[in-house]
Amino acid sequence: MSGTRPLAQAPTVPSRQAGSGSPRVLPPVPGATEHLRAHYTRHGHARYRGPALIRAVREAGLTGRGGAAFPAHVKLAAVAQARGRKVAVANGAEGEPASAKDAALLYHAPHLVLDGLQLAAEAVGAAEAFLYTDARNADRVERDLAQRADDIPVTLVVAPPRFLSGQETALASRLSGGLALPTFSFSRVSEHGVNGAPTLVQNVETLAHLALISRHGPAWFRQKGTPAEPGTTLVTVNADGRRLVTELELGTPLADVITDGAAVLIGGYHGTWLPMTTALTLTLDNQALGRHYATLGAGVLAVLPHRACGLIETARVTRYLAAESAGQCGPCLNGLPRIAVAMAELAGPRPRRGTVQAVERWAGLVTGRGACHHPDGTARLVRSALAVFGAELRRHADGRCSAATDHPVLPLPSAHALPFTDEDWQ
Ligand SMILES: Cc1cc2nc3c(=O)[nH]c(=O)nc-3n(C[C@H](O)[C@H](O)[C@H](O)COP(=O)(O)O)c2cc1C
Ligand code: SF4
Q1: Which of 62, 90, 251, 322 could form a disulfide with 336 if both were Cys (CB 3.0 to 4.6 A apart)?
Q2: Residues with a CB atom less than 6 Å from ligand 1
Q3: 3-state secondary structure labels for all residues of 310-369
Q4: Cβ(182) to ligand 2 under 6 A?
Q5: HSE (CB half, 13 Å, CA atoms) of 128?
Q6: How does DSSP classify residue 190?
Q7: Chain segment 111-120, per-residue pLDDT in tens
Q8: Are 147 and 80 in contact (CB under 8 A)?
Q9: At 90, which helix (H) or strand (E)?
Q10: Is the separation of the CB atoms in 155 and 128 below 8 Å?
Q11: Of the ranges 3-12, 259-268, 324-333, 362-371, which one carries the lowest mean pLDDT score?
Q12: What pLDDT score was predicted for residue 28?
């Protein structure tokens, strides 16, 4: 990794500024936190509000930064057009263990997110707003909220530290007083969300960009990024045993961010492995990544060092993802545990013949069959591992492995963090 610079105190570390200029959503001084007065001194006040803001967001081409890159103006317009009581939610659940960008943003620039939430709520006509975030950020954000005199009341709700907590139907269920588990519904949360009200759910980073568009307008937003994918984006880089958060222009060469390793996982644990030689030729945008069946997701990059085994790492994560499923639908109940056990076998010595084909078949069977995208994302990860780690599969068939250390590479919550033992592949 080039040009990274760890800083004290922050939960994560802004390490590289956006392109050649200064960062946008992160403070210009790496590691600083922008308190209310500094925030307004730097950013000023909104010029575009209400319907004009929704138009500005459309012209800016802002897409969601929570994983799906959905055009933000489409959801804003849908909720704005809905009738009755409405709700707006800033989604900072960040259940993805390899991501830290939302925590970093809430730590370093909380008022940009809170401004974005107010402005988005106002634009859609919501009477109440929620900030949904991990317990680790809650106390600080509560203090930040107390400093403000917001028109629309904001309630802070703690998201359980689970992979699925931030999925939008899980979020709506939690904010309605239920469990933070995805629910099956024929309607969108923008139609029936929190307590049945039309609900705008935007990732906290999306709202921070929206707050900047409200000040500077769409032409300014488009000064960075690519014409198809404008702006900057926060990226969490997991490499060399460290996790750094950085703000980059969309379209930045990946070679500017990562330099060495055997492979890179792009888009998090529902993402795609790419060989390092391929990744280094690509840019950080969905157009370029899409040609290799990858997406940026919520901006996670995780580098597999040469001394590690991609099959062992994928098997650990697959076991975690299978355990994290809500166990409500067939693919999660039957498919993911089988895939996890088979991946553990492939990660061990001399797996049985036919196990690769079984995983491929099950990955096909679970895709598109759940109430949420959890099975699809897990299947994508596993399939990409089988495609990229073919040489490693052959090594394992001979009873050998590339792993030179027991130390796990991809971060997992502590209950799942153990390296594999022999029992895992029995
Ligand atoms: C399994 C799963 C987990 C998700 N977790 C999060 C999350 O932690 N934070 C988040 O903002 N979006 C998460 N999402 C995406 C949300 O469902 C939703 O699309 C997003 O919050 C919308 O905001 P955006 O359009 O601004 O990205 C998740 C989606 C899935 C399928
Ligand atoms: S697909 Fe899996 S994670 Fe999604 S709702 Fe069904 S059981 Fe839960």
Answers
A1: 322
A2: 64-68, 70, 91, 93-95, 164, 166-168, 201-203, 206, 372-374
A3: HHHHHHHHHHHHHHHCCCCCHHHHHHHHHHHHHHHHHHCCCCCCCHHHHHHHHHHHHCCC
A4: yes
A5: 12
A6: T
A7: 999 999 999 9
A8: no
A9: strand 87-92
A10: yes
A11: 3-12
A12: 86
**C-alpha distances out from residue 179 to 131, 165, 336, 409, Å:** 17, 9, 21, 31
Residue whose pair of structure tokens reads 């469990």 in the numeric block: 179
As a whole number of angstroms, the distance between CA 94 and CA 85 comes to 27
Pocket test for ligand 2, best of 173, 183, 374 (most atoms within 8 A of CB): 374
CA distance 369 to 375: 8
Looking at residue 186, its pLDDT comes to 77
Q: What is the DSSP letter of 270?
A: G
Distance 202 CA to ligand 1 centre (A): 8
- Assess contact for 21 and 220: CB atoms under 8 A: no
What is the distance in A from the centroid of ligand 2 to the CA of 237? 28
How far is ligand 2, taken at its centre, from the CA of residue 326, in Å? Answer: 5
| Cβ 371 under 6 angstroms from ligand 2 | yes
